[in-house]
Write a structure and sequence with these properties.
Blueprint: H1 2-22, H2 29-49, H3 55-78, H4 84-103
């Protein structure tokens, strides 16, 4: 279950990153409220997962899911640029996540 909590926390990190962008610096009420509520839920699930998963592993995977997910959302929904360097960077992040998971007991 802790890994599922961590996965959901990571996905929620993507959601709050996107809604934070949509809030325009917290100047729009609804996206701002969504950002804060999803952020709190994401942190809570991360904390629950950390009861079992080591800090370094949990935090690295949580931020990695958020980083790669935000990258993909930016490309897909916000027309952010795609180039070789950015794709390689995302691949390296995913590789690090896989290694972190494999190295966890």
């Amino acid at each position: 279950m802790p890994w599922l909590y961590l996965l959901v926390a990571g996905v929620l990190e993507i959601v709050w990153a996107y809604t934070m962008k949509q809030s325009h610096g917290f100047s729009r009420l609804i996206p701002s409220l969504i950002t804060v509520s999803v952020m709190v839920t994401s942190f809570w699930l991360l904390a629950v997962a950390m009861r079992t998963i080591p800090l370094g592993t949990a935090y690295t995977i949580w931020t990695g899911i958020g980083a790669v997910g935000a990258f993909l959302v930016g490309i897909t929904f916000l027309a952010e640029p795609v180039n070789a360097a950015r794709i390689i960077a995302a691949i390296l992040i995913v590789s690090g996540l896989v290694l972190m998971k494999l190295s966890s007991a």
